[in-house]
Design brief:
The chain is an alpha/beta fold and 688 residues long. It folds into four domains: 84 residues, 2-Layer Sandwich (mini-chromosome maintenance (MCM) complex, chain A, domain 1), CATH 3.30.1640; 154 residues, OB fold (Dihydrolipoamide Acetyltransferase, E2P) (Beta Barrel), CATH 2.40.50; 202 residues, Rossmann fold (3-Layer(aba) Sandwich); 67 residues, Orthogonal Bundle (Arc Repressor Mutant, subunit A). The chain contains 24 helices and 28 strands. 35% of the residues are buried.
Amino acid sequence: MVVSNLESLMGRWERFFQDYCKDKIESASLLYPEKKSLLLDYWDIDKYDSELGEYLLEKPYRAIYAAEEALKRIEVAGEAPHLHFRIRNLPDARKVEIRDLRAIHLGKFVSISGLVKKVTEVRPKLEDASFQCQKCGAVIKVSQTENILVEPAECFSEQGGCGRKSSFKLLTESSKFIDFQKIELQEMPEGLRGGAQPMKLVIYLEDDLVGDVLPGDRITVNGILKAQPRRSGRMKLTEFNKVMDANSIEIKEQAFEEIFISEEDEKRIKEISEDPMLYVKVRNSIAPTIYGLETEKDALALQLFGGVPKYMPDGTRIRGDIHILLIGDPGTAKSQLLRYISQLAPRSIYSSGKSSSAAGLTASAVKSDEFGEGGWTLEAGALVLADLGIACVDELDKMLPRDRDALHQAMEQQEISVAKAGINATLKSRCALLGAANPKFGRFDEYEIIAEQINIPPALLSRFDLIFPITDKPDKEKDENLASHVLEVHKYGEMLSHEPDLDIKKIKPDIEPDFLRKYIAYAKRKIFPVLTEEAIEKIKNYYVEMRIKSKDTISFTPRQLEAFVRIAEASARMRLSNVVTAEDAERAIKIVEYYLTKVGMERETETFNIDLITTGIGKTQKDKMKILTEIIREICKETGKSAPIDEIIIRAEEENIDKETVDKLIGKMRREGIIFEPKHGRYRLTSE
């Protein structure tokens, strides 16, 4: 499009506004200054005048300036408020990935999608500056277009000036300021494969665009890419930084909008959902190269789909995500499972606990020299970036205690609060957590209490819906099958390296990963199952029955009851059903029962005891601790002094508690604060 001058361009915009946007301009004007923008769809402009639409994409700065000047000419009720001209929904040709931005995109209107990684505070930015001459007092107005403050070269003004070079004072009260904010946008993690480093882009927001986005938000920014000079000391470099001036922001409200599902995909998704072998096929599509672990893979499949979060009238939120912890012997493919799930889930972040800090996992306020120009910025961690997806954290037991403590709020409330350096913010972390940990002593002993075998406090353990120990025990038949499977996988891998098109069913997933990712995204976007009366009755009866059966111990708490519901909802969601049936409830009961049999069972009484997980103390251990407490109390009463360890051991042996158990329980009671040691080898109760 050839534009002879700015006036003719403004005329075309004015005609467009008069013919097409009069109602929108009126409604925006009535809400001014709360609403300062006229937001239009690009295709409305293109439909009205394709040349004007093309010119907007190619010469956006000039086109937007002309459009905003034309808007000032359109009066509403005798006034013409200064509205911003904003465009959304650009053509696909203008949708560019951050890593694909090149020099040809500079000065062009483009659309970028990504995750908000950092956000600065909102600051005032000078738009029209008023300077006062220090010699004659004349006031000079200078419009500011760049980031660096431009002062008058000499004293001149409409009222006259001294015309001399002078020093000038900025009059802030008569200058015009607008709100300004910088955000850092990062590529979507699900678009990265093969360990690629996510690319970032700094976006400049002005006026009514500021303050609406938080770290972890998924947004599309429509704006103009520009080059920003780089310096080395006082020298300007020929290399420039890429930055973007935002024109409009589209916050992605709907879950998994970034995953495109075609009509053919939708048809195939519905066909697969009706397959009677659906659950087996989904299980077989999770890490098919790893042998066995059927129940664990069933649970991981259900975690991918998740339950339904509930928002109550009183403002409380009940999470729908299922948290799973894998505790395993060395070489049981825990890390491989985590890595596979992180690549399969539509949104996922993989992190190793050993190298993760609290800020790296949750969120932090950081002092940023370059991006924040010395100020504090809010930065999102892995759990915020995995919002509505799955966060896979390996080596969870190797994290520092202070870093691990940050997980409590993130897991249950699914929020992360930051209060530092004057920044008070609450970010969303609505993700499922899949953790992996190793036992302290190398191998898992199912006869020992889980809390004593793993370096994770019981308070955090209790927040996991399912905990699976993956053990490696000699078993002739199982070992033969495992060895055959592993060796065949290696053989087929070698064959595939020579013949890539070879179709080997044994190691090929029943549903290919790319399509399964679409299936999960479709289910989470469209399906919100509700419990039927039969399902409610089934779960309720099982819960009450198990509570009555274990008289001396607590078999289940309401936390496990919620786990039943989440797993049953995920089971219904997997087959795209909007109702949770008794069959789904049965599946949930079976999985929870399997996990409690492994880690929550009193071996002496063969009953479930959730205290083994939530407090780290079993019934038998609790009874022995009571006996030791009474022994210490009696000795102290008899002697009037603290109880010596030798005397405690002698009396404990009379109650059939051996020396080794006494030493272990005394240490535990000291850590729990039940007893203290006033002198070496002598103990008293803290309550007396």
